[in-house]
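Case study.
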Amino acid sequence: MTGWASFAAMVAAGLVVLLGLPLVFDLFGLLQMTVFAAMAVLALSQGFIWGYGGIMSFGQTAFFGLGGYTYAVAVMNMGDSTVPVLLSVLLPTLFAALLGYFMFYGRISDAYIGVITLTVTVILFNVVNSTAGDFYTIGNAPLGGFNGMPSVPPLNVPGDPSSPLDPQQTWYAAMGALLLVYILLRAVLASRFGRVVVAIRENETRAQLLGYDTRLYKLIVFAIGGGIAGLAGCLYANWGSFISPTVFGLATSAQVLIYVLVGGLGTLLGPILGAVGIQYLISVIGAQEMVNANLVLGAVLVVFVLLVPQGLVPVVQGLFRRVPGVRRGQVAEAAPVEVEL
Amino acid sequence: MALTGLILFNIANSIAVLVLLSLGLGVIYGMMRVINLAHGEFLMLGAYTTVVSANAGLNLWVAMLVAAPLAVGLFGLAVERLFIRFLYGRIIDTMLATWGLSLAVVGLITTIFGTTVRGVSAPFGGFAIGGYQTSVYSWFVIAVAAAMAAGVWLVLRFTKFGLIVRATMQNPDMAAALGVSPQWIYMMTFALGSALAGLAGGVLAPVSGVSPVMGGAFIARAFITVLGGGPAIVTGTGLASGLFGSISEVATFFTTPVFGQVALLLAALVMIRILPQGITGSGLTGRLLRRSL
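After joint prediction, the assembly is written out as follows.
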C-alpha cells in the first residue's frame, strides 16, 4: 500500500470506530473504550518519541500525570473546561522542552535518559503524594496528596460550563482526540522534519555530519511527545472525574512501555493496538483473583523483549509482504525506515 | 551541640543507607554495564527472606546476614542464566527485561504474602544524644555499610578472583584466551551483586516497612547514586552516597523527609548534567580518581 492509501484506510477505520462503537456497545462498554482511547493517546506519545525519535523515555507518565493534574486544578478554578484542556497540553509541552534541553544539550547517553526520566517521574510522585492537607491548595483546588483529587468537573461544550458532555459525547471527544493525534503524527512524520527525525534515529552522527542540529530535533520531538501525553492525562482525569498520584507511578510507566513494545516499535498503529489489548487484558485479570496483574504484565514484557523485540504489528506486516528469499532482520531492522502506518 | 551531633549522626546514617542501597547495583553496573531495574525487588526479596525466616524462628542475625544474601544471590544466579545472559551489550533491552522482571516479582510476592506491611522490630533499643532519642541499630547499619564497601574493595583489589573479574570486564576475549570463562565470571559477578542487594535488604528490613512495593521507594535513589558515582564502583558509590546523603539529610532537617528525597534527586540530576560520567568519570575529580576502584 502506498502512504496515502494506508493513511486513508486508517482514518476511515478510525471514523468507523468513532461513530460505530456507540451503536454496538452499552454504556459500560463505551466508558471502558473511552479510557482505552485515552491510554492509546498516551501510547502514541511514547511510540512517537521512542519508535521514531529513538528517545528512551521511561517517564512518559510524568507528562501524563502533569497533564491530568493541570486539567483538574485549572478546571476546578475556571469552571469552563476549554482553557484547562489547552493548558493540560501546553504545560507538559513546556516541561518536556525544559527537561529535554537539560538532557539533549547535555549530550546524555540513552541509558541515562531512561534513568533521568524515571527519576523525574519518581520525584513528581513523591511530591504530589505528600500534598495532603489544606496547605496544598491551588485556588479552589485541594491537591489531596495520596488521596488524589475527586470530583474533577467533566469536559463541557466549549465556552458553556452549564452543559457538560454526557458519556457518549465524552467518547466522541476521546476517540476524536486519538484520531486527531494520529493524523497530526502522520503529518509530522511525512514532513521534512519527520524524515530528519527518523534519520537521526537511524544514525545520529551521520545526521550531525550532514549539518542537522540533532539536539534541537530531539528536543522538539520530546516536547511534542510531552504535549500528547499531557492531552492523554487530561482525557484520563476527565474520564474518571478523578486523579491520584498513581498516574506518576512506576507501574503506569511500565504499562506504557509495554503497550509500545507489544504493539510494535516504529509504528503508530502498534502502540494504539497495544494499549487497547493490554488495557483489556488488565481489566480481564482484574475481574478474577487467581493471577496478579503485575505478574502477567511483567511476564509479557520479559517475553517480548527476549522473543519478539520488534512487536506484533511489524511481525504481522512482515508476514504479508515477505519478499521470497529476503528475510527481515532481527532487532536492528525491526523498525521500518520508511514511514508506515 | 546535641543538635549538631544528632544531625551529623543522621547524615552518617543516611549515607550508610545509600551505600547499602546502591553497592550491589554498582557492582553489577560498574562491572557488567547491566542496568538492573529489578534491583529494588532484589532488596525487597532480601527483606522478605529476613522477615519470613526470623518469624519462622531463625535467629535474626543469621536471617539477616546469612539467609538474605544467600537466597537473593541464588535468585540472581538464576536470573542471569535465564534472561540477562541473552542481553549483554543491549543496554536498553536489559533495562526493559529487568523492569518486566521487577513487575513479575512484585506480582509474585503479592500473590504469596499479600499486600500487608510486615516487619521485625529493630534490636538494641535506643540511646540519647543530649535530649534527643535515637536508635542504636543505626550504628549497626553504618557498620554494615562500611564493612560491605571495604569488603568489595578488598576483594576486587587484592584477591585473585578480583583480578580475574576486572580483567574479564576490560577484555573478555583476552581473558578467555588465558583460560578464564567469561560466562562464568559474568554469572558470579551478577550473583555477587545480587547477594549484596539481598544483604542490604536484610539489614534494612527492621527499619523499613516490608511490603511487595517497597523496592519502588529505593530504586530511584539507588540508580542515581550509582550513575552519580561513575565508573569506580566503591569510590564512586561512596563519594556519591556521601554527597547525596548529606544533601538529603540537611534538606530533611529544614523541610520534610519527602522534600529531602526530592532534594537528593534534583541534586543528582544537576550533577549528571555537569559530570555526565559521574564523579569518578569526568571533570577534575574524574582525572584525580581515574585509577580508583
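Observations recorded in class. The CA atoms of residues 310 and 333 of chain A lie 9 Å apart. The longest strand of chain A covers residues 137-138. We will return to this complex in the next lecture.
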